[in-house]
Amino acid sequence: MRKMNYRIVACLTLLAAAVASGCFGFGGFSLGIFSVPVPVSPYFQGAYEDMAFENDRYDQVPVLPPIVEGVPEGLDAPSDDEVVRLLERAKPNNGGVPFLETRYRNNVKIKKELIADYVDPPRFFPMVGAVQVHHVHYKCTVYYEQTVRVGWPIPYTMENKDAQEIVYIDKDHLHAVQQQPETSM
What we know:
The protein is an alpha+beta fold and about 180 residues long. About 25% of the residues lie in helices and about 35% in strands. Strand 2 (about 95) and strand 3 form a beta hairpin.
């Protein structure tokens, strides 16, 4: 009998502590069903991080200062990271299928060539103002050694020592237009 009383007192103490601490939503802020953690696959987490990285780094159009004579204009050539990301996006299954076929790129060399660089006449864009669109086109040739390992049904390895891919990159950006001073009469 005495043992039963200790159990009841212990249960009531734990219940009072849980209610007072806000575990059941009586004592403080509660998210309800949303307070239960949900596991997220590493695949989806990595895909979301890649999407956010590319949006922050490559998908936004900058508005640069006006074009001035004698000052070099335009942005830098595409980075190696940007070229490889666009190559992987163009060929989505180029990495192979895990445990069946795996592809590797080794000794990657990237050659970047400027194809075209021209500026459109000034135009008015809503929420931006009067700007000129500057178009820059690059041809990027990626040279690499490709190794393909097939694991099923018969394991074998293929090597291509002089593989190459070509990626065309268009980098458009905006230049603000200098406002002409108004003349008073």
